[in-house]
Amino acid sequence: MNGGRTNDVLLNSCPSGWSGLGANCYKAFIITPSPTTPPLTFDQAQAECESYNGRLAQPKDQAINDHIVGLRNAGNDQWAAWIGITDEVEGDHRFLDGEQVLVYDNWAQNEPDEAPGEADCVRIEANLVSSPQFANQWRDYPCNLPSIAYICELQGCPAAPPDHPPCVEGICFDPPPFNNGDNCIYRCSRNCTGALSATIVTCNNGAWDGEVPVCESEDRDWEDEG
């Protein structure tokens, strides 16, 4: 797996339907507009991401940007998608975590241009043949105008709890942890104590709250139990 900007975690486990890169998980949402599923403003899209305990995606380097563009394009490349950048202070574009957009950007030519109107949020533009100068690049856009697509990110789970490799001397975590957006669920492997129970460890900004699961080697023949 390719490393991302956060490289302390080499492996991650993402919820079904999400795609991992580095320590994070990403998913592009393409709305089929209807009376019950209308296009979303920036704040509404962010709220949807928060419902998964995530946020709008923050493409802080080329690898992340390429990854989320690919996810959007695989879903439907004809719709622009919200990402997690705003300039609440005019001209000072920042990711949702507060970091300034300085190290990397993917602005289209002559962007950001504060058009149309009060354009304080950012979308990855559609991949349209009619406007190749904007295709798959960033453009600022009014936050209160709805968009059909948006891209979320959430933090993945390490392959094992901190300071514990995936498998050493029969002390294993198998299968990989599952991240439901808020908790990481670890299971001891079949040759360890506690194989039939799960331990939940809450993920909080890269730190694990509560006790991490401990699997101890046990000299048992699980196959005899069917």
From TrEMBL:
Disulfide bonds join C188-C215. Pfam families: Lectin_C (PF00059). Transmembrane segments: none annotated. Residues 21-144 form the C-type lectin domain. InterPro entries: C-type_lectin-like, C-type_lectin-like/link_sf, Ca-Dep_Lectins_ImmuneDev, CTDL_fold, Sushi/SCR/CCP_sf, Sushi_SCR_CCP_dom. PROSITE patterns: C_TYPE_LECTIN_2, SUSHI. The keyword Zinc-finger does not apply. Residues 155-217 form the Sushi domain. Keywords: Disulfide bond, Signal, Sushi. This is Perlucin-like protein. It comes from Branchiostoma floridae. The lineage of its organism: Eukaryota, Metazoa, Chordata, Cephalochordata, Leptocardii.
